[in-house]
Design brief:
The chain is an alpha/beta fold and about 475 residues long. It has helices at about 15-25, 65-70, 70-75, 105-115, 120-130, 130-140, 150-160, 165-170, 175-185, 195-210, 220-230, 260-265, 275-280, 320-330, 345-350, 375-390, 405-410, 430, 465-480, and strands at about 5-10, 30-35, 45, 55, 85, 90-95, 100-105, 215, 235-240, 250-255, 290-295, 310-315, 340-345, 360-365, 400-405, 450-455. It folds into two domains: about 5-50 and about 220-285 and about 420-480, FAD/NAD(P)-binding domain, CATH 3.50.50.60; about 85-215 and about 285-410, Polyamine Oxidase, Chain A, domain 2. Helix 1 (about 15-25) crosses helix 19.
């Protein structure tokens, strides 16, 4: 493709698209990113207009895998303004009666909150923490490859493949069982399914290695730092430009799409074989999200003291309650007592709120494809009832709310089909062999010459880590750019 306007064009400016562009720009290739929205960043955008004086992350907010990302480390994002900030306690899981399980970088705080299960918890997670770098290298790469740390991967895999309900039950006490269930429920799957322990194990081990930090100033700091790498190496970012077909794009030696499989199929329909298109269109999306951002006049007065210092909280009570709530969502209904994630970003980053004030967010999973226009008030009430359960009087400190349901998320970012934060359901063959469900040595490379997909619908999937884009850029370097 001699005479191309660019070496590479990237469609979509989420963290994966920006990471792909940054890697190629740093390698000396000319790149241009096209973004449909008027600002780049995808799921790492921060609103400063919704509530005066507050910086509210629209989608992603807490970034353990960002802090662990080999791609972000290789790109030197901290030299481009990215700073990670930590709350006094990483995670708390309140229980009835004013109790709470704690997960923190200080291992003694964790084991002390888990009573007789403390030593067992450390044995379970200590191995993963000791082999953290090796496991991150393995799990952030495509499945079909020769592992560089086969022993660590195999030992991790034995536990990761188990249903989270089974692994939770290996602990004796309610606190440890609930703490693990809350971690595993990030998968947005029924906890009795195979493979649901994997998310819980990696998220739990992240606390003891890299923590669960926020980006100073807002999650858009991640996007800004990636953009800085791109532009400082001669790359371009064009916003407010929707790409509907390949024919609209300038010529390039490689085309990388930070889009959902459906988005790729829409844009590249004339270039992709029908069999591949059918596989893309069969891609399943996971549960949606219903989120509330809060402006607060003072910190939330949680009954359990540890929760007042925690950057993230998992609400839902016992392991059985959380499992029941996620099963209800998977069945297509709205849980009356949902599993709720709460973030208290201003505890780590005071710049998120005006002086003397605080902000928080809360979200729960909702069924994919369900029309929630008539259910918003009901879901808000269920979320706030769970908060009040562990922090009586919470509503009295709320100044203002911003509510975002699945339709708002999809309007914000077309990759978030039905409000799915995870880039697709993370189960079965789709977990292992994204985006088509078919084993592939190079899942980023499509049958169309020089066309690649680099979104969270490819390995390793959800999370703000940029590794989908990093891996896709590596494929483009091998096959189209000769790097």
């Amino acid at each position: 493709m001699s005479g191309s306007a660019y070496d590479a064009i990237i469609v979509g400016s989420g963290p994966n698209g920006l990471t792909a562009a940054a890697r190629l720009a740093m390698a000396g290739y000319s790149v241009c990113v096209f973004e449909n929205a008027n600002e780049f960043g995808g799921g790492t955008r921060t609103s400063r207009d919704a509530m005066d004086g507050y910086a509210l992350d629209t989608c992603s907010s807490v970034h353990p895998f960002g802090a662990a990302s080999p791609a972000f480390r290789a790109l030197g994002l901290e030299d481009h303004g990215l700073e990670w900030l930590h709350a006094p306690i990483a995670l708390a899981h309140p229980l009835d009666g004013g109790r709470a399980a704690v997960l923190d970088r200080d291992h003694s705080a964790t084991t002390g909150s888990l009573a007789s299960d403390g030593a067992r918890w450390r044995r379970r997670f200590g191995f993963i923490e000791r082999h953290w770098d090796a496991l991150v290298g393995e799990l952030f790469a495509p499945v079909l490859r020769i592992p560089s740390a086969p022993f660590a991967l195999a030992r991790f895999g034995v536990s990761a493949l188990r249903p989270a309900t089974k692994l939770s039950a290996s602990f004796d006490g309610e606190a440890a069982q609930a703490l693990f269930a809350g971690l595993a429920a990030h998968s947005a799957l029924p906890l009795d399914r195979l493979q649901t322990s994997g998310a819980g194990l990696m998220l739990g081990a992240a606390v003891g290695t890299v923590g669960w930090p926020v980006a100073a100033g807002g999650s858009d700091a991640i996007a800004r730092s990636l953009a800085s790498v791109i532009t400082s190496n001669g790359g371009e970012i064009i916003t407010g430009h929707r790409v509907r077909s390949l024919g609209e794009l300038p010529s390039a030696r490689a085309l990388l799409f930070d889009t959902s499989p459906r988005g790729l199929a829409d844009i590249c329909a004339d270039a992709l074989p029908k069999r591949y298109l059918r596989r893309l269109l069969k891609f399943r999306h996971g549960a949606g999200a219903f989120k509330i951002d809060y402006a607060l006049r003072e910190p939330i007065a949680w009954t359990a003291a540890a929760c007042r210092s925690a950057g993230t909280l998992h609400l839902g009570g016992s392991m059985l309650e959380i499992a029941a709530a996620e099963a209800i969502v998977a069945s297509g209904s709205i849980a009356e007592r949902p599993y709720v994630l709460v973030g208290q970003s201003s505890l780590a980053d005071a710049s998120r709120a005006p002086a003397g004030r605080h902000c928080a967010w809360a979200y729960c999973h909702v069924p994919q494809g369900v029309d929630l226009r008539d259910s918003g008030d009901v879901i808000r009430e269920t979320i706030e009832s769970q908060i009040e359960r562990f922090a009586p009087g919470f509503r009295d400190v709320v100044i203002e709310r911003r509510i975002l349901g699945p339709s708002e998320f999809e309007a914000h970012n077309s990759n978030l089909h039905g409000g799915d934060f995870g880039g697709g359901a993370a189960d079965g063959m789709q977990l292992l062999f994204r985006p088509t469900g078919v084993p592939s040595l190079d899942p980023y490379r499509t049958p169309a010459p020089h066309v690649y997909i680099c979104s969270a619908s490819t390995p390793p999937g959800a999370g703000v880590h940029g590794m989908c884009g990093w891996n896709a850029a590596g494929s483009a370097l091998r096959h189209s750019l000769g790097g």
